[in-house]
């Protein structure tokens, strides 16, 4: 084997690995720029080895083998785009187009390149019927059940159209920050960037996770024969979010002006964009230019340069999550990057550390993944002086010193000690959080102090705190009023319904929606723990992973003790008598499903929050204001100006009695 061919095979192996992690595991092991350099090197080597057919260069995405969703072939392939990083490459692209297109009016459409997950959505008679990921370009994964949870994707169109549209699902910056903040609080591994978080969210079995994380979607194509600018206008007119950030350019110089404009302007956007997409506007000319096996010849992506910095890795600390997952964190010499001071960065796991050959004392290159979370890209090996130290894989938990075990994937280290200090903190933080038992006043500092005072050893000990009122005064800033409010909120949490209690237990992979489904199906915790694996699998919204997690949870004797102790404190572990009629909780209520409600005035039977919870539990959505998309305005006493505006817009107005009938 000649030297070039040997390098070709090495490159193919590396690229295939990076493809797998990016498309299947939702992890970016290297930057886009580094990846593109490998592709270019492979292409150049193959020019000298024309007899060798690469299995990599013509692939889009990654193999779907072993993935958990149904596989469906695309009507038209979803191709990827060729990338460029400088104006010279854009000029070369323009020359290549003009070599084929002669004496024709040539215009380009410049659009923002959203850093997310490509999606293809089909509508029949104006109703959303299917959503597929890009997959390997030819075959995608059916994620329809998750697509319908994204608010900005229309479920029904104004007209009875049979169309297929394509777009990019993204996670807005604010949502991404909130998710990572919550994961950090729980000690879970942080998402390295918004793209990976969006991809991981879209491929969840539990669709309530999608709803909670507030994904968004921008559309850029419809499968028809229109020019690109007309496609964007059509999408906009039919309720699809396209954004206002696209421009029709008469020549490549105007395209380059757009590049210069967006270099800085993009930083003020509420979502991540990693570049611009330049497309020949005319559909007729697009057909003449055609496609390669991997990408269209009539379009190219201009990628903004990633902002990087170099600094020194001073040491590594280890975080323990609620479920015991250990995350190594790089402690860095302070450095400024993209307008913020960076002192720490996630190293994800020890497998990642080994692959990148990172050592304590290294000069390292860091970048802000998606301009948000700093990550260590690689060490600068040339600058090593021999004093660097290996990052030793832990054998014992950094919090409780118990022996760690490897996860099923053999990548993640886990502490299984139920009495681990850090795990207990994260566990209680989760239990009292807003979406769980919602015990206001029991923050992280108070929780730590109560554990240190030996007043909380498990979540059920929260309900014994009323016996230690005097000890609560020992906690900083805890006065009579705050103590009284805390004890009151603890008692109020006993009114939470069964589904919320079930969610608060923190059963892995059981989100709010799944907890609601399980509560409805099982009626009580005793029934739930006696369900077989097969029975759990047959419940709508519960797959293999969730079923196994539930079985494993109830096999753990400590978990059974926790439930028993909570029951002793009158926590609800069953639907109350006539609760289905009282709250009319159902998996799908057609009166509410995908309908938007707004409540104005004072209701007699329900508090505002109770009514809003019922709307969501029955499949509806709550609006913040009166607009044309509102389906119902629920009117109580003293409704105010919202009633007048709803009348002007022709919104359907219903009374509280009408609302109760819809529930029934």
Structural notes for this entry:
- A five-stranded mixed sheet has the order 2-11-10-3-9. A five-stranded antiparallel sheet has the order 14-13-12-16-17, with no helix packed on it.
- Helix 12 (421-432) packs across helix 13 (444-452).
- Residues 581-586 have low confidence and may be disordered.
- It contains 25 helices and 24 strands.
- The radius of gyration is 28 Å and the shape is globular.
- It folds into six domains: 3-47; 71-303, 2-Layer Sandwich (D-amino Acid Aminotransferase, Chain A, domain 1), CATH 3.30.470; 308-406, OB fold (Dihydrolipoamide Acetyltransferase, E2P), CATH 2.40.50; 418-495, DNA polymerase, domain 1; 498-576, 5' to 3' exonuclease, C-terminal subdomain (DNA polymerase, domain 1); 583-663, BRCT domain (Rossmann fold), CATH 3.40.50.10190.
- The chain is α+β, with helices and mostly antiparallel strands and 664 residues long.
């Amino acid at each position: 084997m000649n030297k070039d061919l040997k390098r070709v095979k090495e490159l193919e192996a590396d690229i295939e690995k990076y493809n797998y992690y990016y498309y299947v595991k939702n992890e970016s092991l290297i930057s886009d720029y580094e990846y593109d350099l490998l592709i270019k090197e492979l292409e150049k080597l193959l020019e000298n080895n024309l007899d060798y057919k690469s299995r990599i260069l013509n692939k889009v995405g990654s193999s779907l083998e072993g993935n958990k969703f149904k596989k469906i072939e695309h009507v038209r392939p979803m191709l990827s785009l060729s990338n460029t990083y400088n104006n010279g490459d854009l000029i070369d692209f323009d020359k290549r187009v003009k070599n084929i297109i002669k004496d024709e009016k040539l215009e380009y459409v410049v659009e923002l390149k959203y850093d997310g997950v490509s999606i293809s959505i089909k509508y029949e008679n104006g109703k959303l019927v299917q959503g597929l990921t890009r997959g390997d370009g030819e075959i995608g994964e059916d994620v329809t059940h998750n697509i319908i949870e994204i608010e900005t994707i229309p479920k029904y169109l104004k007209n009875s159209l049979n169309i297929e549209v394509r777009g990019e699902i993204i996670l807005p910056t604010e949502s991404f920050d909130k998710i990572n903040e919550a994961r950090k609080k729980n000690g879970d591994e942080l998402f390295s960037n918004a793209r990976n978080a969006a991809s991981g969210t879209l491929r969840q079995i539990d669709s309530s996770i999608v709803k909670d994380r507030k994904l968004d979607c921008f559309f850029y194509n419809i499968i028809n024969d229109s020019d690109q600018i007309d496609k964007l206008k059509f999408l906009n007119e039919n309720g699809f979010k396209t954004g206002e950030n696209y421009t029709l350019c008469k020549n490549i110089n105007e395209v380059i002006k757009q590049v210069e404009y967006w270099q800085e302007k993009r930083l003020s956007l509420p979502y991540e964009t990693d570049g611009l997409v330049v497309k020949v506007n005319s559909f007729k000319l697009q057909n003449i230019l055609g496609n390669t096996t991997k990408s269209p010849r009539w379009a190219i992506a201009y990628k903004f340069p990633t902002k990087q910095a170099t600094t020194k890795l001073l040491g590594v600390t280890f975080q323990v999550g609620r479920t015991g997952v250990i995350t190594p964190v790089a402690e860095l010499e302070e450095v400024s990057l993209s307008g913020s001071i960076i002192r720490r960065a996630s190293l994800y796991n020890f497998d990642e550390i080994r692959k990148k050959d990172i050592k304590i004392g290294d000069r390292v290159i860091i970048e802000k993944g998606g301009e948000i979370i700093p990550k260590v890209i690689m060490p600068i090996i040339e600058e090593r002086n021999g004093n660097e130290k290996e990052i030793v894989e832990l054998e014992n938990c950094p919090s409780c010193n118990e022996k760690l075990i490897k996860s099923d994937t053999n990548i993640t280290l886990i502490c299984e000690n139920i009495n681990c200090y850090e795990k207990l903190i994260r566990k209680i933080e989760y239990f009292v959080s807003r979406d769980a038992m919602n015990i206001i006043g029991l923050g992280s500092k108070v929780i730590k102090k109560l554990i240190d005072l030996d007043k909380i050893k498990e979540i059920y000990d929260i309900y014994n705190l009323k016996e230690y009122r005097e000890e609560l005064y020992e906690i900083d800033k805890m006065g009579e009023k705050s103590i009284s409010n805390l004890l009151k909120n603890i008692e109020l949490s006993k009114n939470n319904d069964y589904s919320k209690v079930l969610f608060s237990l923190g059963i892995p992979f059981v989100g709010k929606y799944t907890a609601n489904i399980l509560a409805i199906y099982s009626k009580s915790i005793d029934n739930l723990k006696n369900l077989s694996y097969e029975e759990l699998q047959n419940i709508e919204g519960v797959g293999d992973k969730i079923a196994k997690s539930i079985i494993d949870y109830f096999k753990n004797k400590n978990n059974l003790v926790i439930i028993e102790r909570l029951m002793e404190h009158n926590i609800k572990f069953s639907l109350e008598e006539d609760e289905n009629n009282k709250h009319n909780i159902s998996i799908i209520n057609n009166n509410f499903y995908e309908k938007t409600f707004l409540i104005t005035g004072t209701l007699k039977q329900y508090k505002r929050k109770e009514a809003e919870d019922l709307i969501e539990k029955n499949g509806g959505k709550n609006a913040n204001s009166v607009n044309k998309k509102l389906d119902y305005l629920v009117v109580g006493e003293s409704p105010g100006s919202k009633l007048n505006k709803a009348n002007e817009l022709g919104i359907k107005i219903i009374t509280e009695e009408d609302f109760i009938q819809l529930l029934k």
